[in-house]
Fold each of these.
Amino acid sequence: MRDVNQSMETSVDVTVVGAGPVGLVLAAELALAGVTVQVLERREQPDQALKAQSINVPTAEALDRRGLLPAARRIQREVLARMGSYAGVARERRPEARFTGHFAGIVLDPDLVDWSDPDLAAHTAADARMVPQRELEALLTEHVTRLGVPVRRGVEVTGLEDTGDGVFVGTNTGVLHTGWLVGCDGGHSTVRRLAGIEFPGTDPELTGYQAVVDIADPEKLAGGWTWSSRGAYRYGPQPGRVAAVEFDAPPADRSTPVTLEDVQSSLRRISGTDVTLTALRATPTRWTEVGLLPDSSTPTTPSAVPSAPGYWTGRGRRSASSAATPGPPRSARSSPTSSAPATARPTPSSRSPASPNALPSPATTP
């Protein structure tokens, strides 16, 4: 019998790895269905990197079904207040304009929308979409906490072992045993790798950056999305927010931090201007793939648009569908969100006893 870490829940039905929106929503839905669950997150503090800046209408409606729409609307009011002068300038340019969203960076023309359509008017949660991912994760963390779900930060998964009636999970704080393990730990999922789930694909063909910056000469950038032969960039809607996508190969080391020079050079190449950035105001991000899955099992760009599950559109990798992964625990099958986003209990055939992914022996367990 392995030594089991007593500081974490060891009798839970499900352990979710990853405290992003997918993992937190899954944990909440399982808890509401009567399943005992805990969430493990390798980061000690919430991620401050700039990611998605809004949610879509179905997501807002899902929040509404769980009584979270008032909190989402409060966040939107705060975000709109932060937009300040930029939003004022946009209204002066076209005061009657309404934001309808975009498809892969192609802005949808609001003049083509019949706003009096009763089917459209029935979506009453559509007025709460300006919810950035950072604030969304905070909202969902509060939600799962109220449901009694512990979110254990600073816990990194290092190994998996199927026991037939559950999973031993090696972590940097020790070993735990759980009925099911679900990987919601992002596009470069550790759980997916340890479970032996392949992720074949082709080399990336684009590089994207997203940042909030100070700009010495903002008049050189057009508002919204602008396309050129080199790629596309976006300026706004928040003051100083820029995104740039170039149709080129990624840097040799994609793990290096994004610098002010990286973002500025990319914007200059795409826009054909000598725009000057003077400071970074938030942790910038880089992406090198365009991925489309309804969960966190793929790396995605902020401009990604849902398509067929398991496939990519545009440039980048193509992934096997997550439908091939094992199903949810029996006690969770009645839950509407019970399908595992990345993987659940690994099958015995996915790994040989000599696999480097197997857990260390009890004598070497941390």
Note: The CA atoms of residues 103 and 305 lie 6 Å apart.
Amino acid sequence: MQALPRGAVRLLPGPFLDAQSTALEHLLSLDPHRLLAPLRCWTPTGTPGRTWR
């Protein structure tokens, strides 16, 4: 058995494509600064993260 390249596989219209579209829409609606805030609190980069509580 051999793996296919990612570009060789496409979802056809149906429940799986709908779920993928819904997940993508949700992820793109999230604020990246808010998602990265916990990481910024733990890294020693000197970039302070705001807490979002």
Note: The chain has two helices and no strands.
